[in-house]
């Protein structure tokens, strides 16, 4: 079933609605005309021609029970009133008392599939001779035109959304294939080359085996990233195994030490104030931290330290990783957490470009907040986790 646009978006996409209202006013001399989206909950102005200074504009909402459209919605039939004061059915109705109209014509707008969309309304503070077959026939024709334009606009918007989604998915598939082929090929070729050398020169095992092991670990890390990507995009998101962790600081310190071991030339300063236990998935939180730290090592100024801060209080846990270096361009901010995005690619840069995407998915699964600030002096990624979980909560 087509999902019809809300009233404000309809008005923005269908300029013909205002032209229809111009013709309504010209042919009937009624000074107020509107197309309204009407549901059992609300009356919303989609298009308005207000010649009586009622003050109603596109997007304004009226209490449904104060409108004649309320009756049209429930009865499914048009309402035509020449003179409210002389009409026994509407002389005491709330609408003329509130809006001071004496003549009305309100016709239902039904979409091609029969769905009730709203009403075409016209009214005036003075009485008018409206209850004539030709006037009602004209309004029904105009209501059909409104329905046609709303339906066409809605279908166009839906097709545009589908096309945009397909285009995004196509680009993602192309990136996936290109990056995967490049980044998995390198460690695979290294392993193949190492095994050939090992077969020819077994006496060099002590030299070659560590290289093979590093390449194997590299492939394993890439495959793990791809699995997390698949869970985030194709599954229900990253699943958590939550527990109350009292030794989170020790886990963070261990990750810092691992990075220092592999990159001894980089300075990493830690500033921890961990006085409370944290309810989290420790494995996933360690992965989030490791990815942020690796990102800082890759993109930060190698001559200046990386600063890691972690703290707890009664309300939340906060973790941040800061590095000096070139600021992230403003146009890249919105793409930072997209899969396969690698801002400022370097020839030596490795990885699928999934690190920050996985960080954002882990943060989302924890219902935490991930933010980034970047200026000339510092780039800082901050993860804040409010204490909202129970230990029995298992998934995002």
What does this structure look like?
The protein has 396 residues and is an alpha+beta fold. It is built from 10 helices and 13 strands. The chain has helices at 7-13, 16-28, 69-75, 94-99, 133-200, 205-234, 248-262, 282-299, 330-333, 355-365, and strands at residues 32-38, 43-50, 61-62, 79-81, 103-110, 116-124, 243-245, 268-273, 278-280, 306-312, 316-323, 369-374, 379-386. The strands form 3 sheets. The protein has a 6-stranded antiparallel β-sheet with strand order 3-2-1-6-5-4, sandwiched between helices. Strands 8-10-11-13-12 form a 5-stranded mixed β-sheet, covered by helices on one side. The protein has a two-stranded antiparallel ribbon with strand order 7-9. Helix 2 packs antiparallel against helix 5, helix 6 (205-234) crosses helix 10 (355-365) and helix 8 (282-299) runs antiparallel to helix 10 (355-365). 29% of the residues are buried. Residues 1-5, 345-349 and 388-396 have low confidence and may be disordered.
What is the mean pLDDT? 83
* Sheet with the most strands, sense and barrel status: 6 strands, antiparallel
Count of extended strands: 13
| Shape, per Cα inertia axes | elongated
> Structural class, from helix and strand content?
alpha+beta
Alpha-carbon Rg, integer? 32 Å
Assess the beta-strand content as a share of residues: 15-25%
Q: In sequence order, what are the helices and strands, one letter per element?
A: HHEEEHEHEEHHEHEEHEEHHEE
Low-confidence stretches: 1-5, 345-349, 388-396
Question: Biggest sheet, strands in spatial order?
Answer: 3-2-1-6-5-4
How many individual helices?
10
Q: How helical, in percent, are the residues?
A: 40-55%
Give the termini distance in whole angstroms: 30 Å
């Amino acid at each position: 079933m087509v999902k019809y646009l809300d009233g404000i978006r309809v008005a923005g996409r269908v300029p013909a609605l205002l032209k229809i209202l111009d013709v309504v006013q010209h042919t009937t001399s009624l000074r107020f005309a509107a197309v309204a989206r009407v549901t059992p909950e609300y009356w919303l102005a989609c298009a308005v021609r207000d010649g009586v200074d009622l003050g109603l504009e596109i997007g304004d909402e009226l209490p449904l029970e104060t409108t004649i459209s309320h009756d049209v919605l429930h009865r499914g039939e048009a309402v035509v009133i020449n003179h409210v004061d002389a009409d026994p059915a509407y002389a005491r109705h709330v609408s003329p008392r509130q809006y001071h109209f004496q003549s009305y014509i309100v016709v239902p707008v039904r979409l091609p599939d029969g769905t009730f969309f709203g009403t075409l309304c016209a009214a005036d503070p003075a009485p008018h001779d409206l209850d004539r077959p030709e006037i009602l026939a004209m309004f029904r024709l105009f209501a059909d035109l409104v329905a046609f334009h709303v339906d066409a606009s809605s279908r166009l918007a839906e097709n545009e959304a589908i096309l945009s989604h397909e285009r995004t998915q196509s680009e993602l598939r192309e990136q996936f294939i290109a990056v995967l082929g490049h980044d998995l090929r390198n460690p695979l070729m290294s392993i193949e080359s190492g095994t050939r050398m090992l077969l020819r020169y077994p006496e060099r095992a002590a030299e070659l085996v560590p290289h093979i092991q590093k390449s194997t670990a590299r492939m394993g890390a890439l495959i793990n990233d791809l699995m997390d990507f698949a869970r985030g995009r194709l599954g229900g998101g990253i699943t958590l195994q939550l527990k109350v962790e009292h030794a989170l600081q020790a886990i963070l310190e261990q990750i810092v030490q691992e990075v220092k071991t592999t990159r001894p030339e980089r300075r990493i300063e830690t500033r921890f104030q961990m006085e409370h236990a944290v309810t989290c998935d420790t494995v996933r939180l360690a992965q989030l931290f490791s990815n942020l730290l690796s990102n800082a090592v890759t993109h930060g100024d190698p001559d200046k330290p990386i600063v890691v801060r972690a703290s707890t209080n009664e309300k939340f846990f906060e973790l941040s990783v800061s590095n000096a270096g070139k600021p992230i361009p403003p146009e890249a901010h919105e793409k930072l957490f997209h899969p396969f995005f690698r801002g400022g690619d370097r020839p030596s840069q490795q990885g699928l470009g999934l690190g920050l995407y996985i960080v954002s998915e882990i943060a989302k699964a924890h219902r935490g907040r991930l933010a980034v600030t970047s200026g000339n002096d510092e780039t800082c990624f901050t993860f804040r986790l409010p204490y909202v979980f129970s230990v029995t909560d298992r998934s995002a």
